[in-house]
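Q&A log
Question type: sequence-to-structure
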Amino acid sequence: MRPVRLKALLLDLDDTLIDNPMDSFIPEYFAALREWVAAVVPPERFIAELVAATRAMSFNDGAGPTNEEVFAAAFYPALGVPRAELEPLLDRFYREVFPRLAPLTAPRPAAPRIVKWAFERGLQVVIATNPLFPRTAIEQRMAWGGLGVDRFRYALVTSYENCRATKSSPAYYRGILAVLGRRPDECLMVGDRWDWDVACADAAGIPTYWIAAPGAEAPAADVEPVGRGSLDDLLAALLSGAWDGHGAETALREAAR
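Response status: OK
Response body:
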């Protein structure tokens, strides 16, 4: 078992720090977008090209353009609408309409307490959400969970503007390490998605804590998180100084020194 000598805490957002089931959020998000652009672009075509351009970002390998640039290169030409015409309309959507989706999400009380715990110990804190959304859509969801950038000074919030890979690739995590100037073993990644938050972080050498329901079976035996449980379980372990993982881990108060 790898010891965790914490210098940086990486935290997934959706269904880790906030309740945001994508099977209900995305349909409402798409419906709002379709209505908003209907006067400019046929709604079904808009969504089809949006999905295709989002998929294109998943192939970004960390060495080239930002995810935003990959998205734009795939999206606007396919629609046949100049970026200069459509982008201001989308900016207005995120200012005026996106906030109405807040009731689809719910805060998790443990989340701000975990972030506060990390800042009190001088850790770098990263909101390591899949960088498929523009920064404003991520910051708004953070605010809905009591985690706003006006409250905490994060080392990094990943978004499509500042990333060159997505969470489906270890390159995403290597990019975070480069920004932080940290070794993998100085970090801990916390998230609910085994493939994105555990397996890919592990492939980059970063220890992980899996947000999982009791009795959930790990999809792969060759990847071993240093801990697992609910966000409340993680908070309890942090506050007690004991690391509740597979076996006795070094106390987190020792790890954070």
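Response note: The beta strands are 8-11, 18-19, 106-107, 124-127, 156-157, 187-191, 208-211, 227-229, 243-245, 247-249.
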